[in-house]
Automatic annotation (TrEMBL):
Domain of life: Bacteria
Identification of the protein by name: Uncharacterized protein
Length: 52
């Protein structure tokens, strides 16, 4: 889907498109990492509760 969008861009817009794509990807990865860290925290808390 994203690749098709890039193909339709003119050469001038292409680098901007790649930058925008990189920003979106970075944002997605950041959100995913936060979510993943939250899961790990919850899992650790659950393990600690079981030990008590």
């Amino acid at each position: 889907m994203v690749c098709k969008q890039l193909i339709h861009l003119s050469p001038q817009n292409w680098s901007f498109g790649v930058m925008e794509l990189t920003n979106q990807t970075h944002r997605y990865i950041t959100q995913f990492n936060k979510y993943h860290l939250k899961l790990i925290q919850i899992r650790m808390q659950n393990k600690c509760l079981k030990l008590i």
